[in-house]
């Protein structure tokens, strides 16, 4: 089995990591995942029967976020 780093190198993907404890280095993704957690999970009693069900729900949320969600 290939290591994660070997797979990245093979696909010519450059890994970028922020400094430890500094969420501002990656604020766009921190913002997105914060919104996704608030809008998909917190205050709701979602249960997913399988990992595939969760994956589908996340894909649908990403599509909604990119195409329909009103941004401020």
TrEMBL record:
Integrase catalytic domain: residues covered: 30-70
Domain of life: Bacteria
GO BP annotations listed: DNA integration
Pfam name, any one: rve_2
Name of the protein: IS3 family transposase
Lineage per the UniProt record: Bacteria, Bacillati, Bacillota, Erysipelotrichia, Erysipelotrichales
